[in-house]
Predict the 3D structure of the following.
Amino acid sequence: MYVIRLNEPLNHERHKMKISVEVHFHSVFVFLWSVTCWGKMSMQGRNTQLIGGSTLESIEVIRNQSKLFRGECARLIEESSKACKRLQVDDNERLDHRVRDIQFVKKELELKLEENISETDGLIALQDRVTKAVETCKGPLRVTVLCMDERNKRHPSEKLHDEVSKELVKEGELTKGVMSLLQRVVKQITEQIRLNQTAKFDLEQDLKEKYEAHHLDTSCATMTPHSLNNTQMLNPTTVPPSSPLTLVEWERSSDFNIAKAEQQKTNSVALRALVESLLAQTAADMQKQFQATSTALQQNVQQIKSAKSQMEEQLTKVLSEFASQQKIRDDLQVAITENEHFLSLAQARLELRKQRPAKERCHDPAQSQLLAEVGQLTNQISKLHETVAESEEQQRALVRCQLELQQNIEVKANLLYVDEVICNQHRAPTVIHNF
């Protein structure tokens, strides 16, 4: 049997050609063997012995075998030529399909790259706006600090924590919070720009490889057996060795870069929308708070005379609440003492039960109940102590309120000059614009 062995890896078409060749040779072999046997049987009576030991009939058989073999070889050559052409057509079709696949992925990568660049430019412009907004906040904050400093210059007995002070503190905290928030936003935008640039780098590297692969596969598609001598082959030493990727892995590689770029685009769009909303909201909050502080100043001037009586009334309520808080604190101490007595009793019972004989020291329901009782009483005592501490804190807060009210009642008239004249002079030129 004649079998053609190919050194290169067999694909589907080459495998079919190999089987066809083997079948043809096997058929030829069987046919020739049959002809030989028939010739021998039909010519046994007229064999003419030659000097070399052969006969004319055997030589005739060999000649016929050679003639048949030549015919089979010619058919094999023709079939091999057709198979090569089919393989060439299949190769070209698959290379063309591969080129189209690469071209499609290239367009996707180019689109994502354009979107990435556009989003990055938008983030850079937005970053400049946020940076300017941080600078804009410094003016209102300076005015707020000046007002607070002027009010703090009063005599210690005149320093009361009124609505104006609260609004000023809120205004200062809000402005500082907005500045801090915007500074964090600048960092977030910077980080998102970095992520976009990372995705851009991956897209550009992928595009570079796709351009090279597109060029090489296009060149492969245009190659013919006659153009091999004129083709410039790649130097194998310049190509880093690596394991070949499957088609799925190849698709996943670009899909990953595209998905990463799309994710960063989505993140950028969401971040820009969030920052735009944040800029509008923070500006509105600052304007609202600035107006609230100004309104509080005006109302404070109008309510100075009536504030004294209101504070005196509030002082009475504070003193009453302090007394009530003191009573509840005493009740808590009594409850703690009572619970400690019960805890001591349960612990004494447990200690006494330890003296039982060894065989009687079982974990019976009574033992379980005592252990549970110790745990429950311990928790109750701890909770009561925490409540006492909270009560003490409430009493301290009430004492602070009492002192503040007393001070405010005494010095209310001195606030008029600070609030109506000095603070209004600082705040009048200040205008908070949208960021």
